[in-house]
Specification:
Elements lengths: L8 H16 L6 H10 L11 H8 L3 H13 L2 H10 L3 E4 L7 H4 L7 E6 L8 E5 L6 H16 L3 E4 L5 H11 L3 E5 L13 H10 L1 E4 L11 H11 L3 E4 L7 H11 L3 E4 L7 H11 L3 E2 L3 H7 L4
Parallel strand pairs: 3-4, 3-7, 4-5, 5-6, 7-8, 8-9
Antiparallel strand pairs: 1-2, 2-6
Helix pairs in contact: 7-8, 7-13, 10-11
Length: about 300
């Protein structure tokens, strides 16, 4: 591996990116562990020359964890992965890259890397999230059709998670209205979930944008989705919750939006409907009740 003796800044950045990608692909460690190392070696200049004892100390791993990490670390062929990703037009955006969304940098636990396919210029546009129930009904569809046009007219990028129900409606309606959308995935690009949204994902990656913090070769895991939600809320000015049961991933997204100091909007629903319990509760807790896209623009001082 070539060292940091080069004076070519671009090459230095690429070397750092390759080393960071090497760590990201180790399933035995997460962002927190990698950030422990970055505190000692911000440029990862010494990643391949540091002794195992020092590396274990920097990563803050116990002996068993270190053994597992070491085996995995030495098995990963980073250059081959980078070649594969380049062939698939996957662009890697590290946390210190100019294209990395500024709003996302401000959250408590920003992802170290975003994998992207599509129009990366959308990352610099103002954006708002739409989330809700996977079993969304016609009320959700009608509401999104009502809320979207003023947002699209103001050039908002609509961010959602490519899940069934509300997310799918939000992406499809945005495209139908001539707007731009970003889908944040809970797994890698080679394993689109749910499978029935593969065609929608293809459409988004060609004219809009797909992003994920998970390596393209990784399959989605159940615990990925709550983590994915912090990106949806973190890269947007506000989150619109359309429908949600009393326990819902959408409510997690709303909580993460509030934690990041972002706006939360909720669509009111009938009090005898399970899909209204979560949104009505959000309104009781202070979320902005919305009945039109104009309500959202006024709250954001963009009317």
């Amino acid at each position: 591996m070539r060292g940091y003796f080069t004076t070519n800044k671009k090459e230095v950045i690429l070397i750092f990116q390759e080393k960071l990608l090497h760590l990201i692909h180790c399933r035995s460690i997460g962002n927190k562990t990698i950030k422990n190392l970055l505190r000692f070696d911000p440029d990862l200049k010494n990643l391949y020359s540091t002794s195992l004892n020092n590396l274990q100390r920097y990563l803050q791993l116990n002996p068993s964890q270190m053994l597992k990490f070491s085996r995995e670390f030495h098995a990963i062929q980073t250059k081959k992965l980078l070649e594969l990703y380049a062939k698939e037009n996957i662009v890697i955006i590290p946390y210190n890259h100019p294209e990395y969304p500024q709003l996302l940098r401000e959250i408590h636990d920003p992802p170290l890397v975003l994998f992207s396919k599509g129009d990366r210029s959308l990352l610099s546009n103002k954006a708002i999230a739409i989330v809700g129930a996977r079993d969304a009904d016609n009320y959700a569809r009608e509401a999104i059709e009502l809320l979207l046009p003023p947002l699209v007219e103001k050039k908002f990028v609509i961010v959602s998670g490519l899940a069934k129900g509300t997310d799918t409606i939000a992406h499809e309606s945005t495209i139908a209205h001539g707007g731009k959308t970003i889908a944040v995935l809970g797994g890698g690009f080679f394993h689109i979930y749910p499978r029935e949204n593969k065609q929608l994902a293809d459409k988004i990656q060609h004219a809009h944008l797909l992003i994920s913090e998970y390596p393209p070769i990784w399959r989605p895991e159940k615990w990925h989705f709550p983590m994915r939600n912090r990106i949806i809320s973190g890269m947007t000015l506000g989150t619109i919750v359309i429908q949600a049961k009393s326990r819902s991933g959408s409510l997690i997204t709303a909580d993460q939006a509030l934690e990041a100091g972002r706006e939360v909007f909720a669509l009111p629903g009938q009090i005898n409907q399970p899909l209204s319990v979560g949104t009505n509760h959000l309104i009781q807790q202070g979320a902005k009740l919305v009945a039109s896209g104009q309500d959202i623009l006024e709250e954001l001082n963009l009317d």
